[in-house]
Amino acid sequence: MATVTVYDLEKKQAGECELSDEVFNTEVKRFLLHDMVRYQLAARRQGTAAVKSRGKVAGGGKKPFKQKGTGNARQGTIRAPHFVGGGVAFGPQPRSYVFKLNRKVKKSALCSALSVRFQAEKLTVLKDIELESVNTKAFAEVLKRFELEGTLIVIDQADPKVELSARNLKHVKVLRADGVNVYDVLKYPNLVLTAAAVSQIEGALER
Length: 207
Description:
This protein has a single domain, classed as Ribosomal Protein L4, Chain: A (3-Layer(aba) Sandwich), CATH 3.40.1370. Helices cover about 35% and strands about 15% of the residues.
């Protein structure tokens, strides 16, 4: 098992933490990362784009002019697609973009994403993040102390002080351990975990 240094908020060594090789130092399967990011982005799409076909456009029940004798091409309705105000041929209709991925694939993809950050030495473990109050400036100073720009912070449980302190910081996002996902891990170049979050993530992915 790999061992990493655990720091406090003052960037002083507060111990060491063993990381599961199965979760944080496994083989990186980039094709799974690609599939998982596509899966997450597809699930976010609303799929509400819609237009009216000729059967849904109001009016046009009467033949616009007689079949023969006018010198014009014969027409059955002014709501055909080639008329202004007519229906749209083969236009978009509401649909879902979600596709299926197996549970093992999702777990393996997340382990690969976490391993990418660990192997690139972009993973930092903190003993805990305890703030006296909601203070964005103080929280920004903590990140500056660790020289972190573009950071995903994972905590083990809800903590309004941390979540609100980081809310207005640019390129910083706070997630709870049960919400950690491949897209966010890859989006932010630095990953910060609390020691409790590490245990929670390993418990979920080692099973």
